């Protein structure tokens, strides 16, 4: 069900009206935490900040790098940051266990998860089913690993036969490149370009994104605590509006966006990160859903699938309802969300 036609009924029609954005809002710093170290797709926030978009909408932005989506989710819940950018899958288990600190997606940036199964040609694995009986690596508790049983189910993989190897996140891709594991699970645009950075030839990388192979669920989103957005609806709406404007800038001026990130991190590789951005754009942002309904468009069936597979993966017996995890309340009209 496309929520541009039918918004969250459970929330009530009146609650879903778009709050007015007042340019004269107080310029108190708004603390914003990313999901990881600076990557190309984060240029939508940095370039919008550099161009004064957030300030024009009443926000004095303080943007910090993250240390994983799970960590960002906890930081938002604790109040250390008002708004975050995180994989929405991390919120299913968290919200079930912490209903008083419930987090909600206020702008779904990645229409498709970047989670993927990734290997190298030298392993001889040519289909997802080929990982049966092989050594599969990922950090313990990492999101794409936790979702693997659901992906295995739709892809016809014998998940019980896989031999898992756990490692620190920064060692996963090195271990694949060195042949210590046969395949890994992780974010496609992270692992792919990490392998390139390690000297792996691109023709040797083989990947099966979950969303393109039967498990079509959402990825990362702009999120905030539910009680915070109820107290600060204008700020939430202004942040979403600014982020969408930033995404349009990133699409139109990728070189300028990479330069804006380089200003914030001297070791930032502009050429590599622009390519990472292009992959993110093509695989997770400019999807058929977004092209038809605009960025941030929500579909209840896809959201409920995400909740179900995460609840199954983490053994959650009381998963949150769709309307408790997603809202389109703060999105501008569809015409302003079309990306061309």
UniProtKB/TrEMBL annotation:
Q: Which reaction does it catalyse?
A: N(6)-(pyridoxal phosphate)-L-lysyl-[4-amino-5-hydroxymethyl-2-methylpyrimidine phosphate synthase] + L-histidyl-[4-amino-5-hydroxymethyl-2-methylpyrimidine phosphate synthase] + 2 Fe(3+) + 4 H2O = L-lysyl-[4-amino-5-hydroxymethyl-2-methylpyrimidine phosphate synthase] + (2S)-2-amino-5-hydroxy-4-oxopentanoyl-[4-amino-5-hydroxymethyl-2-methylpyrimidine phosphate synthase] + 4-amino-2-methyl-5-(phosphooxymethyl)pyrimidine + 3-oxopropanoate + 2 Fe(2+) + 2 H(+)
Name the pathway: Cofactor biosynthesis; thiamine diphosphate biosynthesis
UniProt cross-references to Pfam families, sorted A to Z? NMT1
UniProt key word Cell membrane: no
The entry's keywords: Iron, Metal-binding, Pyridoxal phosphate, Signal, Thiamine biosynthesis, Transferase
Instruction: Tell me the first and last residues of the signal peptide.
Output: 1-26
Q: Which InterPro entries match?
A: NMT1/THI5 (IPR027939), SsuA/THI5 (IPR015168), TAT_signal (IPR006311)
Q: Where would I find the SsuA/THI5-like domain in this sequence?
A: 40-257
Q: Which GO terms describe its molecular function?
A: metal ion binding; transferase activity
Offer one example of a GO biological process linked to this entry. thiamine biosynthetic process
> Is this entry keyworded Cell membrane?
no
**Coiled-coil regions listed:** none
PANTHER family named in the record: 4-AMINO-5-HYDROXYMETHYL-2-METHYLPYRIMIDINE PHOSPHATE SYNTHASE THI11-RELATED
| Subunit structure, interactors included | Homodimer.
The record describes the protein's role as:
Responsible for the formation of the pyrimidine heterocycle in the thiamine biosynthesis pathway. Catalyzes the formation of hydroxymethylpyrimidine phosphate (HMP-P) from histidine and pyridoxal phosphate (PLP). The protein uses PLP and the active site histidine to form HMP-P, generating an inactive enzyme. The enzyme can only undergo a single turnover, which suggests it is a suicide enzyme.
Hey, which family's this protein in?
Belongs to the NMT1/THI5 family.
UniProt protein name: Thiamine pyrimidine synthase
């Amino acid at each position: 069900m496309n929520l541009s036609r039918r918004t969250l009924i459970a929330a009530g029609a009146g609650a879903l009206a778009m709050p007015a954005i007042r340019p004269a809002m107080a310029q108190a710093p708004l603390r914003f935490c990313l999901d990881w170290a600076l990557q190309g797709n984060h240029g939508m926030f940095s370039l919008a900040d550099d161009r004064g978009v957030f300030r024009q909408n009443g926000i004095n932005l303080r943007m910090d790098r993250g240390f994983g989506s799970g960590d960002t989710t906890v930081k938002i819940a604790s109040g250390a940051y008002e708004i975050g950018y995180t994989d929405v899958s991390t919120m299913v288990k968290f919200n079930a266990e912490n209903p008083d600190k419930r987090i909600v997606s206020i702008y779904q940036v990645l229409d498709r998860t970047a989670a993927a199964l990734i290997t190298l040609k030298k392993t001889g694995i040519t289909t997802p089913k080929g990982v049966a009986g092989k050594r599969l690596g990922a950090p313990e508790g990492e999101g794409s690993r936790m979702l693997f049983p659901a992906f295995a189910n739709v892809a016809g993989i014998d998940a019980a036969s896989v031999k898992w190897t756990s490692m620190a996140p920064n060692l996963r891709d090195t271990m694949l490149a060195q042949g210590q594991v046969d395949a890994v699970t992780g974010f496609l645009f992270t692992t792919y370009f990490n392998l390139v950075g390690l000297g792996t030839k691109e023709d040797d990388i083989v990947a099966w994104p979950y969303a393109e192979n039967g498990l079509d669920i959402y990825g990362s989103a702009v999120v905030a605590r539910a009680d915070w957005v109820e107290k600060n609806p204008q700020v939430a709406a202004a942040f979403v509006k600014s982020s969408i404007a930033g995404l349009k800038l990133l699409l139109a001026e990728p070189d300028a966006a990479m330069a804006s990130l380089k200003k914030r991190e001297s070791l930032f590789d502009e050429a590599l990160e622009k390519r990472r951005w292009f992959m993110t754009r093509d695989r997770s942002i400019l999807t058929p859903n977004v092209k038809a309904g605009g960025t941030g468009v929500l579909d209840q069936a896809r959201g409920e699938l995400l909740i179900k597979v995460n609840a199954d993966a983490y053994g959650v017996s009381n998963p949150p309802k769709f309307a408790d995890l997603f809202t389109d309340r703060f999105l501008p009209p569809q015409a302003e969300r079309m990306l061309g």
